Amino acid sequence: MIELLTLLWHFNTAQPAQSTLTAQAPQAEFAAPANQTNGFTVKFALDLKKFDGDKTILEMPDVLSVRLRQHNPSDRGGQNYPSFKMPDGSVPVLEATVVLHSVEHPDWQNLTIGIPLAMLQRPEGGHEVVLDFTGARWTMVVDGALLDNNFAFGYPKWADKNMWKLDAEYVKKAEIHLPGIKPEKQPAATPDISPGIQYWTPPGHNAWVGDVATLSYQGRYHVFYLYDRRHIASKFGCGGHYFEHLSTADFKTWTEHEAATPIEEQWETFGTGTPFVFKDQLCISYGLHTTRIYPKERTTLPAQWEFLNKNGRTDGFKRDSTPGVPAGATYSVSADGISNFRKSNVMFHPCENPSVYTDPSGKLRMMANYQSNGIWESDSIDGGWHCISPGFPPGGDCTFFFHWGKFDYIIGGFTGLWSKPADAPDSAYEDVVRKGLDFYDGSNVPSISEITGGRFLMAAWIPIHGWGGNLIIRELVQFPDGRIGSKWMKEITPATGKPETLAAKVAETTTFPTNCKSFMLTFDVQPAEAKTGKFGIAFLPESGEQASCELQLRLDDLHAQFGPGSLNNFAGNEKSLREGGAPQQVGNYAIGNLIGVEKPFTVRVLVKGCDKIGGSLVDAEIAGQRTMISYRPELTVKRMVFRTEKIELRNVQIALLRN
Prior knowledge:
Blueprint: E1 2-3, E2 7-10, E3 19-22, E4 27-31, E5 40-48, E6 54-60, E7 64-71, E8 91-99, E9 110-116, E10 125-133, E11 137-142, E12 145-151, E13 161-166, E14 171-177, E15 184-187, E16 193-194, E17 207-217, E18 220-229, H1 234-237, E19 243-248, E20 254-257, E21 270-271, E22 275-278, E23 281-288, H2 301-311, E24 317-318, E25 328-334, E26 341-343, E27 346-347, E28 353-358, E29 364-369, E30 375-378, E31 386-389, E32 399-404, E33 407-412, E34 416-421, E35 430-431, H3 432-435, E36 444-451, E37 455-463, E38 469-478, E39 484-487, E40 500-506, E41 510-513, E42 518-527, E43 534-540, E44 549-554, E45 559-563, E46 589-591, E47 601-610, E48 615-622, E49 626-633, E50 639-645, E51 647-656
Parallel strand pairs: 1-20
Antiparallel strand pairs: 1-16, 2-15, 3-14, 4-13, 5-10, 5-14, 6-7, 6-13, 7-8, 8-9, 10-11, 11-12, 17-18, 18-19, 19-20, 21-23, 22-23, 23-25, 24-27, 25-26, 28-29, 29-30, 30-31, 32-33, 33-34, 34-35, 36-37, 37-38, 38-39, 40-51, 41-50, 42-47, 42-51, 43-44, 43-50, 44-45, 45-46, 47-48, 48-49
């Protein structure tokens, strides 16, 4: 289970409201704030009831509008409103839009947040709603819970006299506070509990896991992830990402901590990095993706590049003393070795996705990604970085180094993997993907860390309707030649009920119904002869073949794949990463050079249907040595069609997931 950081937001203040509306006085005028850039807070009492169409229930022309509307139940978009539907299938939503203005981006104006009303415990009835604009954040809090936010750029343009009004049918009272109220955040009496880490997403309708960075330190496994709302569309398409933080000491109980790198300024949006330990301090490096907002010449990057090109090494540029908007690589430091991170406000390299690590000899190193590349080395985090391997690895989204036994590895973002003997120079790295021996299985931007007992874990995300999605964690398997495979981690595999045997043997086309949208399927594969035969399992909806999925395994070419499911035929061959396929899209793809299938072996398949993702995940483990996962939008599995060729499937069992 995950014990979530459940905070109640209280907007209490002795400060009188700038203006108050009531059902008896539904319209009023108020003066502009003394400082145009000050934040504001709007509190109102909402009386929900059934409605049709679109109703503006609170309005401040050219500054703010709040509306109720019926959303299209089939339109997920960035807000993913259909993840919560009313019993009749409708999706009424509450939305609030603030109108912002800036010189840099005059087209960035309407910033909207919102929720599907079905996510409330009492969709109909009275609620306290708070809309809070701080300058950096635009937040919706309902009954003390933060349910949606976005990240601002620009400020409202207040008039000398501002008119606002409410719809008394839905809003009984409204107050505006200028400047805004600083909320008091208090832990809830009973924290929310999430049932498990595997396939996890942050709570809420539009919150997802982005790039993942991990580290095991002092017996505790840390998962940092870029918190994503709206599939990178927040902050006017700049992402508005920052690192949230989970950790565990036993992989059974997980703790959610305060954000490691919160967004506190309008110019902030963060990119990928890595946690690392330096001088016995737990740190996390990350990139300031400021060039998404400001042109490069307005940032600190020109000064950083000028110093690097002149001196052959970087310097530590401090935020308070460097001209320009901060950009490039920076880091935060934990105050207690577990959480409580504080920003260093030092930019140590002009790359914008730094991957800092300590190599096996104890040297502080970094792989530069996004706007730079190569391996760099330094005696200090705060500057002094010089390149020791120009051009390799190539600068992409993210690279991650790990050392295991006699081998060193670098895994890179979505498609890259290199390895070498540990005692060989960096020039000896070989392209593992080109050999077809990679272990990409649908994982996006994976990170690998060693945990207690010499075990290695890979954590990553899988895309759902765009950038960001579910968290997945694999346990890795290493072979004597350095090749790596993957398997499900026992401690975090979802629990199931008592298995039911569907068939002792399947040797021809057979159909089985399912009575649950989430289940685990287990069976043994018995080839008629070595390296021949294939099987396919089509996972189908109640009728037809739309949105279906087939897991297929072919022994003749040692390929497994996800393809479209069919009632009557095997799916055609899909491509592996080496062949030009795209496992990172978690749709139809293949993996090659299967391991452990030269004799009878076991396959496990976990199907997890979920309203939030609007479909099902199909996750397979083959012979305990290779994994692969697929996301099938709009699929709820109701039937399974088993098809074999020169292969028997034995002891076919199904077990329902408990959560």
